[in-house]
Write a structure and sequence with these properties.
By secondary structure, the chain is an alpha/beta fold. It has a six-stranded mixed β-sheet. The chain has a six-stranded mixed β-sheet with strand order 7-8-9-10-13-14. It has a two-stranded antiparallel sheet with strand order 11-12.
Length: 209
C-alpha cells in the first residue's frame, strides 16, 4: 500500500493563495504546489517540517501561485513543472498578471518539464493529473486518488470557481472542467487555490440547489 501523503496548507501573499507542501509519510522530500508570494514564509515552513523540496508543481501560471517558484528552484534545486499550455505565463507578466508592485520579485522561469495528463510521479508522490482549462488554458488539478484528495488551483473553490475574464480564460472550457470534477467521488476533499477545503459532494450541492 502506498504511504500516506501529508498535506500542509500555507496561505501566502496579499491574495492568500494556498501553497501546498506535500510529502510522503516518513520522507524528507517535499513537493510544493503553487508556491506564490512570501518566499521567507515558505522557507520557514519547510525548515519547521524538516523538508527539502524536490519539485514545484503549478496548477496554473498566475503570479500569485508561482512568484516564489524560480527562487525555490535556484535555492533548493527543485524542478519546476507546469502544463505546456501555460508555459508562457512563467515568462510574460501580461499573462501571469504580476503587478508592477511585485515586478522586482518576478523571475522568468524555463520549466524543467511539462505536466502530462494522467499518471505523473514526482518527489515520491503519484498524482493523477486532470486537465482543467478555463481559468487559464493549461490549468490542471492534482488528484491523489488513494488519499481521497484533489488540489484544484483556481478551477474550483469551496464556494465558487475561477474567473474567466483574464487573458486565456474560457467559460465553456471551465464549465466542462467543473463537470469533470463534480464526477469524482463525493467524499473527495477539494484543496483549492484560495480559501478552505471541502468535500466535492458538498460543493456540488451548492451549485445544483
Amino acid at each position: 500500500m502506498a504511504s500516506s501523503i501529508n498535506i500542509n496548507i500555507l496561505p501566502v501573499g496579499e491574495l492568500q493563495a494556498n501553497c501546498y507542501i506535500l510529502n510522503p509519510e516518513g520522507s524528507q522530500d517535499a513537493v510544493l504546489v503553487d508556491p506564490g508570494d512570501d518566499l521567507n514564509k515558505i522557507r520557514r515552513a519547510l525548515a519547521s517540517l524538516s523538508l527539502t523540496p524536490a519539485a514545484v508543481l503549478l496548477t496554473h501560471g498566475h503570479y500569485d501561485h508561482m512568484l516564489s517558484a524560480a527562487h525555490i528552484k535556484e535555492e533548493f534545486g527543485a524542478k519546476v513543472y507546469i502544463s505546456e499550455n501555460d508555459a508562457v505565463y512563467l515568462s510574460d507578466r501580461a499573462y501571469n498578471l504580476c503587478p508592477d508592485s511585485d515586478a522586482e520579485r518576478f523571475c522568468p522561469i524555463v520549466p524543467d518539464g511539462f505536466i502530462p495528463e494522467g499518471e505523473f510521479e514526482v518527489g515520491g508522490i503519484s498524482f493523477t493529473v486532470i486537465p482543467s482549462p478555463g481559468h487559464t488554458p493549461g490549468g490542471v488539478c492534482f488528484y491523489l486518488k488513494e488519499q481521497g484528495a484533489i488540489l484544484t488551483g483556481d478551477t474550483l473553490f469551496s464556494n465558487g470557481f475561477g474567473r474567466t475574464d483574464f487573458i486565456g480564460g474560457n467559460w465553456t472550457a471551465l464549465f466542462k472542467s467543473l463537470k469533470t470534477l463534480f464526477s469524482l467521488p463525493p467524499e473527495t476533499m477539494v484543496y483549492p487555490g484560495h480559501g478552505a477545503h471541502a468535500p466535492v459532494g458538498d460543493i456540488r450541492k451548492g451549485f445544483y440547489r
